[in-house]
Amino acid sequence: MGHIAARDIYRRLGHAIDNTPVRTPWNDAFHAMLRELYTPEEAELVVRMPYRPSSIGRLARVTGMDRARLQPLLDRLCDKGLVLDIREDGDRAPDAPDALDAPDALDAPDAPDVPDAPDADDGCLYMISPIVIGIFEFTMMRTGGALPSKRWAELFHDYMFGDRAFLDANFGDGQRVSVMRALPHQQTLGDHVEILDYERVAALVEQNRTFAVGLCSCRHEKHHLGTRQCDVDMETCTSMGSGAEYLIRRGFARRIDKAAMHDILARSRDLGFTLSADNVQQGVGFICHCCGCCCNLMQGIRQWGHAGVLVTSSFIARCDASLCNGCGLCERACPIDAVSLPVPPGGRKRDRRCLVDEAYCLGCGACALKCPTGALKLHPRERKVLHPADSFERVILQSLERGTLQNLVFDNPNSRTQEFMRGLVGGFLRLGPVKRALMGEALRSRFLDAVRRMAG
């Protein structure tokens, strides 16, 4: 019977992770991955944890575990990147939302009432890691010791790209809110084009004093899968501010200075990489340096056609046919095959001119970096791109799109009362007209303001 109980705890763990802002549909590949990463004891704790960031005192009340048992378990999970620890003094994990401050009364009816230990909480909040940005990245960023990185790479690949299930669950209905967005290479902007600070790489760097670099999880994965085509250093995942402090503290990255940060950015520009960052306007915590051969987000776009996997910048590449010489460098530079040079009907190969697929163009400028004639430039998009103000808004909108917002409102998985409320509210929010209205321009600001007031 032991194997049945073990499968049950991992099935429950899969359900818990699936109820975070990034959906994780169950299949055999997901089961195999969870068994590799979590011990049964760790899985049991995560299953019983609230969905919102919570202090160890609240965790003790909700889970029914005392602190002496909780703390070492939490530390072990945090060291593996399977639980995020958020410091209320400003040191927070990348993409962690502000805590919704749940009244203790919501915990009391169905959860065991375990008294807090006499010592006060240390200002640290804990939350379940979503699969991205979270479980995948931090697992593949781990270094040291005899880690089974090749096995992990195979498991993640089998789950995320073995079939359409994972990407369809998160982007199959045209979802617009993803965890990452493309950044434009500023030197590829057209003349007199204005750019806001949150899309200027230099401005993002200047806003911070702490920087770190660690293994690129995608390159590390592709290295072990044997599909990596680039030869750039795998230590290219850069972070800033509180995100950098978190990664340094948990051993996922090492501290660097601002000059080293600029050097890495310059190298990425020279190599024609796409820069991507948190899909927020405020509090950007990382910048990725992405190539088409390794980046999982770009693979999702190319392989399954989900353009929303990586949110575009506010710009789009356009070609001046009068300047294009048909050399094809732009076509080779585009990491998602959104640039082509078709031969015109009745024409010859030398008559080819650059054509940009506007449905997929990221607005990154990688193609324009390689254009020798200046025919390709970035120009403002006609339709406004949704870039949430901060991680709070991104998580709320992401959860609304994916049908998990009710879990952040009624977050105690051990409460039958809250289970009923999750079902009730979740059913209402899944109604098409309701979701469209709350995501629309007219109601979105008022909806987010209401959620913020509830959180405060």
Structure characterization notes:
- The protein has 456 residues and is α+β, with helices and mostly antiparallel strands.
- It has four domains: 2-160, no CATH class; 161-309, no CATH class; 315-380, 2-Layer Sandwich (Alpha-Beta Plaits); 392-455, no CATH class.
- The chain is built from 20 helices and twelve strands.
- The strands form four sheets. The protein has a six-stranded antiparallel sheet with strand order 3-7-8-5-4-6. A two-stranded antiparallel ribbon has the order 1-2.
- Helix 1 (2-18) packs across helix 3, helix 2 (28-37) runs antiparallel to helix 7 (149-161) and helix 6 packs across helix 10.
- It is globular, with a radius of gyration of 23 Å.
Quick overview:
With 456 residues, the protein is of the alpha+beta class.
Strand order of the largest sheet: 3-7-8-5-4-6
Q: Radius of gyration, rounded?
A: 23 Å
* Major sheet characteristics: 6 strands, antiparallel
Helical run tally? 20
Question: Helicity range of the residues?
Answer: 40-55%
Write the layout of secondary structure elements.
Elements: H1 2-18, H2 28-37, H3 40-48, H4 56-63, H5 67-79, E1 83-87, E2 124-128, H6 131-141, H7 149-161, H8 165-171, E3 180-183, H9 201-206, E4 211-214, H10 217-225, E5 237-240, H11 241-249, E6 254-256, H12 258-271, E7 274-278, E8 286-290, H13 296-304, E9 315-319, H14 329-333, E10 339-340, E11 355-356, H15 366-369, E12 376-380, H16 391-402, H17 405-409, H18 416-429, H19 432-439, H20 441-455
Helix pairs in contact: 1-2, 1-3, 2-7, 6-10, 7-10
